[in-house]
Amino acid sequence: MKKNKILGIAIAAIIGMTSMVPAFADDSVAATQTTTTVQTQTKQLTQEEILQRLTQRAEKLGVDITGLTNEQARDKIRQAEAAKLGIDITGLTKDQINAKIKEVREANAAARLSKIAAKLGVDITGLTNEQARDKVMQAEAAKLGVDITGLSKEDALAKMKQAREAKAAERLAQEATKLGVDITGLTNDQARDKIRQAEATKLGIDTTGLTSDQIKAKIKEVRGTKKEENTQKLTAEATKLGIDTTGLTNEQLATKIIEARAAKLGVDVTGLNNKDARAKLKEAREAAKANKTVKSTNGTV
After folding, report:
1. What is the pLDDT, as a whole number, of residue 112?
2. Could you say which residues form the signal peptide (predicted)?
């Protein structure tokens, strides 16, 4: 669930870069915004609106522009943006800095698009960032079972987000059921918090005074510890059974152990998942135990 959410956020962020106007752009540039690929609409921004955008960008970059004019704020934001991207602006003009920032952004976007495309199994070789974004969006939509034909990018992203939220809600409901948590009427975020709290309790974690992110980190830490303990336990058990544990995950180790136990009991677990295989082995052991008890009883009569 986390991976899908992160993937969705990454796609939305990269696609959003297509029509993004830098907060430090000149008034003439910032005043024009592309609303669709078919129609371009020009809107003259007021000084207050420009300042609001500059303030939002400055906050994201951790820059203080209090008391500065819009032009001074742009310069400060431009320098901060360049520093964040690792760009040396020594001796460069404003236009050259803007061009350099755009170039690095596009390169970063291309790298991120390549990673996302690889995860989705999409070939974007030879495509521009714009073409790659469109192809990635189509692949993500298909994966979600969403038809975005004829939709603008904004509408397509909104529809995909809705589909992701619906799928997330289904997964959250399943997790809640396993933990015995009631999430009726809760938003996905509220449900996640409640499930996280229940999971923390199950793991014996004291969440008093912890934020949601801190609880999440604590759960991850405890899970890691338990996973390591489980690995050691499985490895020891596999070794006793003569199983080569080299390069195997915990899941693979568990499967190998189950198969070895099944072979000893003469039980066929072919095609079964580990949970069902364990259940079948348990039945076989109980049957063998019952049979042994009957034989023992008959022998004493």
Report:
1. 93
2. 1-25
Compute the distance between CA of residue 232 and CA of residue 237 in angstroms, rounded to an integer.
9
Which stretch of DSSP H or E encloses residue 40? strand 40-42
CB 151 within 8 A of CB 134: no
Per the domain annotation, does 233 fall within a domain?
Answer: yes
The H or E element spanning position 80 is: helix 70-84
Residue 200 counted as domain residue: no
Paired tokens of 14: 């990269």
CB-based contacts of 260, cutoff 8 Å, min separation 6: 238, 241, 242, 243
Are 199 and 216 in contact by the 8 Å Cβ rule? The answer is no
**Residue 86 belongs to what domain range?**
2-144
Q: Of the candidates 96, 112, 144, which is a domain's last residue?
A: 144
Whether 163 is in a domain gets the answer: no
Q: Which pTM does this prediction carry?
A: 0.58
Share of the chain above pLDDT 90, in %: 75
**Assign residue 210 a region: left if phi > 0, alpha if psi is -120 to 50, beta otherwise?**
beta
When comparing pLDDT for 169 and 41, which is higher? 169
